[in-house]
């Protein structure tokens, strides 16, 4: 039987779907950017510079993984930068006041992140306020809390060698490259996120919720619970990233992570995840995270004045988004 | 009438001071297409939402195959074999046809992993292709195609196929032909007949009386939260039904009913 008189065969499009996919176009742009930077300045691909980029990459990248899942479900979180700052500050205060050992303090810090994520998620889903407003308010609360409990002063971070320092900020050398253990965290969490979004039942639910929440709910998918857990996950990852960063630089600053929320969202959408939900790609996010890191690093290397470099970052992000929008339009037309 | 599948008895539902459903009772037989008609605000949506588990009724009973049931959630309704298909809320456009067909009932490996269990992608795809083939739309559609690439009529067909797939006893179609072109509408109506011939019961909610006369066996008309008429299609005509819906000529109808 025939329902529609469309002549187009959906199957015919599949061959080119990889090339048209947003993460693929992002990857091309990334390669072009890397080439340009490498040609413009030989130091760009030096072991020292690559090691540097790889040290920073996981800290924002880990948050971006959680943000990708959250965006795919149709919500986002502006409080991640503030949580990035607060979590290590709380850990260090607990340790310095002698109230807890480092292990217990780290656990307490993560539990605090769970609580922040849960509050975000509960308000968004149960009271029905947009995640923009809820997490913007949470940003202020969390950042304010970090500033108040430290009286605005950065704390000296835990720097005694031991299990937790190695776990979060240990480093190792491969040839003349120096890598931090945080890179393994990023790799492991990326693989886990790819698995969840593409192959697990939960990933199917996350995409369905972001694509058409009512449809998912009508099929018995617990949309609110999934969203609340994703808020918690994003918050915990932000806290973890903050702790990794604080251990690496041996300082916990109450203003650490300022502006990270937008940088992370930029990574995610540059990678091809839709801000409107339903379409998410972890591979794209990894490409996006690499791209933003490379841009920030490369632009300085090729001699763009420091004060001007946000202009370039903004322009490149805009160009990426325009490209995605055009590809999307093209795909819709078939 | 064929064997009873669904029976509603004295359903009542109020929202604050608004009595959306005053007293609704009717039965739906096996392999029967019943059209539920009524103007906006007549209580049609409230009635189907009560049956599909969106909210509980204040009073009244629902029986499925003679068994009294309580429907507290959409999941309850689905488990009882009641599937509701809304025009805009039935499919996720960014997911493939196969993933939509099994949304919420995904076949998985390693079930003990719960929500983290991996989808059985081969089974998902095969089952979806088999289903598309069985309902006769496999030539047009690939199970891996995204729903966003489909036309409105194709989406309706997918949604209805999904309801059939899970052996739904009762399929509720909420305005299935809204916003569809002429040809697509005919496709969907043909599909409704096939669903009935496969033994499913259909409750069809629509504004379009012409469609009703093409597919329905029986017509139920609601006004102001009450069922005001119940007739077999063979015993009535378009004008009569229209006047019942609008209430324009109720007295004449009542006289006619008494005369019978």
CATH architect. name of chain A:
Orthogonal Bundle
Could you state the order of secondary-structure elements of chain A as H and E? HHHHHHEHEEHHHHEHHH
Structural class of chain A: mainly alpha
Q: What order do the strands of the largest sheet of chain A run in, or round the barrel if closed? A: 1-4
Low-pLDDT regions of chain B: none
Roughly what fraction of the amino acids of chain B lie in strands? 25-35%
What share of the residues of chain A lie within helices? Answer: over 70%
What's the CATH class of chain B, please? Alpha Beta
Write the CATH homologous superfamily of chain B: P-loop containing nucleotide triphosphate hydrolases
Classify the fold: give the CATH topology of chain A: ABC transporter involved in vitamin B12 uptake, BtuC
Largest sheet of chain A: 2 strands, antiparallel
How would you sum up the major sheet of chain B?
6 strands, mixed
Euclidean distance between termini CA atoms of chain A: 24 Å
Mean pLDDT of chain B: 84
Helix content of chain B: 25-40%
C-alpha-based Rg of chain A, rounded: 21 Å
How far from one another are the termini of chain B? 20 Å
Categorize the overall geometry of chain B.
globular
Number of contiguous helices of chain B: 9
Structural class of chain B: alpha/beta
Task: Characterize the structure shown.
The complex is a heterodimer of chains A (334) and B (260). By secondary structure, chain A is mainly alpha-helical. The two termini of chain A are 24 Å apart. Chain A has one domain (17-333): Orthogonal Bundle (ABC transporter involved in vitamin B12 uptake, BtuC). In chain A, strand 2 and strand 3 (177-180) form a beta hairpin. Helix content of chain A is 71%, strand content 4%. Mean pLDDT of chain A is 87; it is low at 1-15. Chain A has helices at 17-20, 22-40, 47-72, 80-96, 102-127, 131-150, 163-169, 182-199, 201-211, 213-218, 223-249, 260-270, 282-301, 309-333; strands spanning 155-156, 171-174, 177-180, 251-252. Chain A is globular, with a radius of gyration of 21 Å. Chain B has one domain (4-94, 167-259): P-loop containing nucleotide triphosphate hydrolases (Rossmann fold, 3-Layer(aba) Sandwich). Chain B has helices spanning 44-51, 74-79, 97-101, 121-134, 152-165, 182-197, 209-215, 238-246, 250-259; strands at residues 4-15, 18-29, 33-38, 59-64, 67-69, 82-86, 170-174, 201-205, 218-223, 226-232. A 6-stranded mixed β-sheet of chain B has the order 6-7-8-3-9-10, with helices on both faces. Classes of the chains: A mainly alpha (334), B alpha/beta (260). The interface between A and B is large, with 37 and 51 residues.
């Amino acid at each position: 039987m025939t329902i529609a008189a469309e002549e187009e065969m959906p199957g015919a499009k599949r061959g080119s779907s990889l090339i048209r996919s947003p993460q693929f176009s992002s990857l091309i742009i990334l390669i072009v950017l890397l080439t340009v930077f490498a040609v413009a300045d030989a130091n760009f691909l030096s072991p020292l510079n690559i090691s540097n980029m790889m040290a920073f990459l996981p800290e924002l990248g880990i948050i971006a993984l959680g943000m990708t899942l959250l965006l795919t479900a149709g919500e986002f979180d502006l409080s991640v930068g503030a949580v990035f700052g607060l979590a290590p500050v709380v850990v260090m205060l607990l340790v310095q006041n002698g109230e807890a050992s480092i292990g217990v303090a780290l656990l307490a810090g993560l539990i605090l992140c769970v609580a922040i994520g849960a509050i975000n998620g509960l308000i968004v889903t149960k009271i029905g306020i947009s995640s923009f407003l809820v997490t913007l308010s949470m940003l202020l609360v969390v950042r304010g809390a970090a500033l108040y409990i430290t009286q605005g002063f950065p704390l000296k971070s835990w720097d005694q060698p031991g299990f937790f320092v190695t776990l979060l900020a240990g480093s190792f050398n491969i040839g003349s490259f120096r890598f931090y253990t945080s890179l393994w965290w990023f790799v492991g969490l990326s693989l886990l996120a790819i698995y969840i979004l593409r192959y697990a039942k939960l990933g199917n639910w996350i995409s369905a919720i972001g694509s058409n929440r009512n449809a998912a709910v009508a099929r018995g998918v617990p949309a609110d619970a999934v969203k609340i857990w994703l808020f918690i996950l994003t918050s915990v990852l932000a806290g973890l990233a903050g702790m990794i960063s604080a251990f690496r630089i041996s300082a916990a600053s109450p203003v650490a992570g300022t502006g990270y929320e937008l940088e992370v969202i930029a990574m995610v959408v540059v990678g091809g995840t839709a801000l409107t939900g339903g379409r998410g790609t972890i591979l794209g996010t990894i490409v996006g995270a690499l791209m933003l890191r490379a841009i920030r690093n490369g632009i300085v290397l090729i001699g763009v004045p420091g004060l001007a470099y946000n202009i370039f970052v903004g322009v490149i992000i805009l160009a990426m988004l325009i490209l995605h929008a055009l590809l999307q339009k093209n795909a819709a037309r078939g | 009438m064929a064997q009873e599948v669904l029976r509603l008895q004295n359903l009542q539902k109020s929202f604050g001071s608004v009595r959306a459903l005053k007293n609704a009772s009717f039965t739906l037989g096996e392999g029967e297409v019943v059209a539920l008609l009524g103007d906006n605000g007549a209580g049609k949506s409230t009635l189907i939402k009560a049956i599909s588990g969106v909210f509980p009724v204040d009073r009244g009973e629902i029986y499925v195959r003679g068994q009294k049931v309580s429907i507290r959630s959409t999941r309850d309704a689905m488990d009882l074999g009641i599937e509701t298909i809304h025009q805009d809320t039935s499919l996720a456009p960014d997911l493939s046809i196969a993933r939509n067909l099994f949304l919420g009932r995904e076949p998985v490996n390693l079930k003990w992993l719960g929500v983290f269990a991996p989808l059985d992608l081969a089974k998902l795809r095969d089952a979806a292709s088999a289903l598309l083939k069985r309902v006769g739309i496999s030539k047009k559609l690939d199970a891996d195609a995204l729903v966003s690439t489909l036309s409105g009529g194709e989406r309706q067909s997918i949604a209805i196929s999904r309801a059939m797939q899970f052996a739904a006893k009762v399929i509720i179609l909420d305005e299935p032909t809204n916003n569809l072109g002429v040809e697509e509408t005919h496709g969907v109506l043909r599909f409704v007949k096939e669903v009935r011939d496969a033994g499913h019961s259909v409750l069809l909610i629509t504004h379009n009386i012409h469609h009703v006369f093409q597919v329905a066996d029986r017509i139920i008309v609601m006004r102001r939260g009450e069922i005001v008429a119940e007739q077999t299609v063979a015993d009535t005509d378009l004008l009569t039904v229209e006047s019942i819906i609008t209430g324009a000529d109720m007295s004449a109808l009542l006289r006619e009913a008494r005369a019978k």
